[in-house]
Amino acid sequence: MIAREAGRAVRRRGSARRGGHPPIRSDLKYVTQPCWRAVARRAGAVAAGPNGDVIHLLALTGLRFGEMAALRVRDVDLFRRRLTVEQAVTEVGGRLVFGSPKSHQQRRVGIPRSVVESLSIRCLGKGPDDLVFNAPKGGAIRLRNFRRTVFNPATEAVGLSDMTPHDLRDTAASIAISAGANVKQVQNMLGHASAAMTLDVYAGLFEGDVTALADLIDSAPADYLRTGGKVVDLARSQLRL
């Protein structure tokens, strides 16, 4: 049920990359829409609270779990359908530590229409500095607790026990690329430090675009006529073949 595609790694799995970037991942997992939606539905049943919207948001925006957990109401622009990602939260020694995202850069991510309603409900009645997503007893959602009480039971219930929250990030990248997003758009969505990093990880997904690009080129042979330039028709005898 989980579709796997081997990433094209130039170096061995786990080997270091130039510039201090993390190792190139050589095994990516993309979850089909029926599968992650099934997990989302189950997540709302295995524990108290509307946990399914967390699954939806991660699968459609590519946010890291810590970035999702650190979102505040002021970061959610429902009118323009944008999220501002400026913080991430991690658990260190049992304590929650808020800091900058992994790339150390703020970014804006589009909000799919299908999650606008659930986000608006999460923000209802809260102040600008309040967290959008809260743990059952308050505070930020901890990844370890979320996996133990919600995510793992939900994935096991639908037969996807090898699925991880990070697979939803890879899935979001797959959905975006399939929808026609270019490398720079995917880089911004995921918060990668460079487009080269995005290509390192998801090169296999972009390879399917080469035929589509060729078709676009074929469909636009007369575009030069709209540029106002001079068209020179050289006789074949003048060409040096």
Can you put this structure into words, describing what you see?
The protein has helices at 33-46, 52-61, 65-69, 116-123, 143-157, 165-178, 183-190, 195-206, 209-218, and strands spanning 2-6, 27-31, 76-77, 82-85, 88-92, 95-99, 107-110. It is α+β, with helices and mostly antiparallel strands. It has one domain: Intergrase catalytic core (hpI Integrase, Chain A). The longest helix has 15 residues, at 143-157. The chain is globular and about 70 Å long. Mean pLDDT is 81; it is low at 4-24.
Superfamily (CATH H level) name: Intergrase catalytic core
Coarse shape: globular
What structural class do the secondary elements suggest? alpha+beta
Task: Output mean pLDDT.
Answer: 81
- Biggest sheet character: 3 strands, antiparallel
CATH fold title: hpI Integrase, Chain A
Q: What is the spatial order of strands in the main beta sheet?
A: 3-4-7
What is the annotated CATH architecture? Answer: Orthogonal Bundle
Could you give the order of the helices and strands?
EEHHHEEEEEHHHHHH
**Fraction of residues in helix:** 25-40%
Strand-residue fraction? 5-15%
Number of separate helices: 9
How large, in whole angstroms, is the Cα Rg? 22 Å
Regions with little confidence, pLDDT below 50 for 5+ residues: 4-24
Highest-level CATH class:
Mainly Alpha
